[in-house]
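User: I'll paste a sequence; please echo it back and then give the predicted structure.

Assistant: Echoing your sequence first, then the prediction.
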Amino acid sequence: MFASCEKEEQLVLGHDFEVDARLGDVDENGYYHLELGQDWQTLHRISGQVSEVENEYELTKVYWESSHYWLVGDTLGYVVHQNWTLNDNGYLYLNNDTTYVTWFEGHEVPTINETCYSTMDGEINIMFAPVEVMEGDTITITGVAHFADGIISNTKRIDIIID
């Protein structure tokens, strides 16, 4: 029989979780506003803070959801095959052809990445990317923090009007 006088170390974590839309103050109705950029898709970083931890295996995982998504059309993009000039100034002849990247029709693309992990000092960041056809819409973003000790936070919500 084995006995020990030492106590096993208990995992003691904080459970703070705050979201920062990084869009200034809310309007009189409690909404943030994001002005679309010049490109088809506007990238915006949402940040926040969870309790800091002492060990990497204690990092907090945050799950995100958005009320909006967009659909990929019949072609995601294309690749153009080009002729190349070699280092010895010789010329490599290739078939000059375009290959389309297809089979994505109807694929749903969320406007926010689905998960992120905190840093050890508790910083969290996630990318939000509405597209131009969402102008005038109000997008609801929610986040839930899952702490290393099994505790799950209350849902945090922000509403963003796309201007």
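The mean pLDDT is 82. The longest strand covers residues 138-146.
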